[in-house]
Amino acid sequence: MDDLAQETCRDGAPALSPDEAETLLARLGGWTSDGQAIRRRFTVKGFARAVEMANLAAWLGNRQNHHPDVTFGWGYCEVAFTTHDAGGLTRNDFICAARLDALTA
What we know:
alpha+beta
């Protein structure tokens, strides 16, 4: 398990440089970035599983006080993390992504 999953989100985390964000992204499997957010599309079986995945991402967001954008439908759930206050990516986004990966492993 990536050590990012052991960290806790912090209020006021600073924005990452593009190089820092790329380094952290390389530690995650299946996540992509447009420089402003990181996202992953989870493929699941059926609608109920997609709802469960969305609920898991929402639960994690509440626990970390770092809430994702979530879209879902039959057979998929897409989760995106960004830090609106920082205007882009912070370490918190990568922490939450790693934690979600650990929960779904």
